[in-house]
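Same chain as my last thread, 302 residues:
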Amino acid sequence: MVPKVESGWGRGLVPTESTSLFVPGTRPPYPWAVPAQFTILGSGSGGNCAYLEVGETRLLIDAGFSARQIRERLASIGRAPEGLTGILVTHEHGDHIQGLGTLCSKTGVRIFANRFTREAIQEAFPGVGFSFSVFETGSTFSVGDVEVDAFSVPHDAMDPVGFLLRTSAGNIGFLTDLGHATRLILERVRPANVLVLESNHDVKLLQDDTRRPWSLKQRILSRHGHLSNDAAAAVAEELAADHLRQIYLGHLSRDCNRPELARKTVGARLTSIGATHVRLGDTSQDAPCATVHLEAGIPQIR
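reply #2:
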């Protein structure tokens, strides 16, 4: 369904066979290739934000740090909030929208969100004059040189979504907050060449944690909570086709996970099926990752 786009921004698209870029049996939707640059500015239980640049299109995916932190992290890659085309928002939890109020009031940057997420953002930041483009969950729409597939994910938010971002250089998938991966979710994100995949917790570390009440542990472990390392490994195994080249393990719990544990669990599963072509990357909520340059579906870190 074509999204509702307010104030003329974006362009609704009808999915065609050409939209599964670099997947066998499909063809790129663009007659020319525009290289993409992708940087995870930070990811973890305390904040999530990423940056994608394709030609003149510059997007944030979520804004879960303070506006000051986002500005500083963008500056570290030579960019500034004033140059943003828009911000794609997965859902309304604070670790994904913390910086929106200040960032948008100072720059006027447009937010792309579904209706329920828009309403939750407005409630969280009363008095801020946001500029929204509203999409329907399950739709495909465009922002400049990027086509965005937005699909529903099971999480304890109003209307949470994952994204597949299609560019002429390749596809980037976002699965950062979900309790389990349905068959539909796997199919929606399957064309990804680069995947940001939640690997939130180690089950034993979470169960042994003395600071979290049992009710919170149950929420995290539920089918509308967060993916464990083992669950992330199962998703990685399912999606490890030839065109998937890079997986970033994201949204790690600071207390109930360790990067080496997540990497070991997911890496062992990929090794067991011979998927040695898939690189694993760590993320941190304390510092940006190295920028990935994506061309012809091949990610390179320079």
